[in-house]
Amino acid sequence: MKCRLLLFAVTGLGLIAPIFAANPFLNANDDKPVSTTVRGMEWNDEYTNGEIPLTGRMITTRIGAMPWGAIFKIEFTDLKSKAEQKREIGPLYFIATDDRIYLLNEQNNEAAAKKLAGTDKAPNFEQADIRAIASGKMEFEEGPYTTTIVTKGGECTYTTSHNSGHYTKFVWKKGSGLVEHASNYGAAKDGFRLKRVNAKG
Fold it and tell me: For the chain, first and last CA: distance in Å?
């Protein structure tokens, strides 16, 4: 995401209470981390024989609150399986406005999040950064990637795929947040699929 953060006035970090309408899929009343169990499968053509069970914890923390939205960090910890090599999933940073969720994708997401948290106006987000919409359906293509975002029955599903077999999936549930995350590299060369246990709703 290319945010022109220097164009906006900077205010004291953490001193602004959000006044936007809370996002239906990603919201928090405070900055306390929320930890939940996730279960699913993983695969790797070098370290596993097909799909094997994978478990862990998903921790969601609000790390910034602005007049126009909020920033969340989602981490996957304590990942366990019988694979020879331990799987690592890097932290994800999301920006939630009243009607959309965007992925923060900078070289240094922590620094970018702190700078963004001090702004009083939303930057111009790019379409490719959208990861959820409050209602309706969205489809777009960027190079070899095809993306579909659909909101229906209290859930929003984001899927993007590459013609080589790469794909990423997020499923959001109202009142619960992120309830499913999946990623694959190549033709089932390496990937995982994790779902939140006992999500509300």
Answer: 32
How far is residue 61's CA from residue 171's CA, in Å, rounded to a whole number? 18
| CA 54 – CA 194 distance, rounded (Å) | 8
Closest CA to 8 of 84, 69, 62, 82: 69
The percentage of residues in the chain with a pLDDT greater than 70, rounded to a whole number, is 88
Residue 27 CB burial class (10 angstroms; 0-12, 13-18, ≥19): middle
> Residue 154: what are its φ and ψ, rounded to 5°?
80, 5
- CA 50 to chain CA mean position, Å: 26
Please say whether the beta carbons of 179 and 173 come within 8 A: yes
Q: What is the DSSP letter of 128?
A: G
Each residue's pLDDT tens digit, 159-184:
999 988 899 999 999 999 999 999 99
pLDDT for the residue numbered 8: 30
- Helix %, strand %, coil % of the chain (to 5): 5, 50, 45
In this structure, what token pair is assigned to residue 30? 């405070």
Q: What is the pTM of this model?
A: 0.87
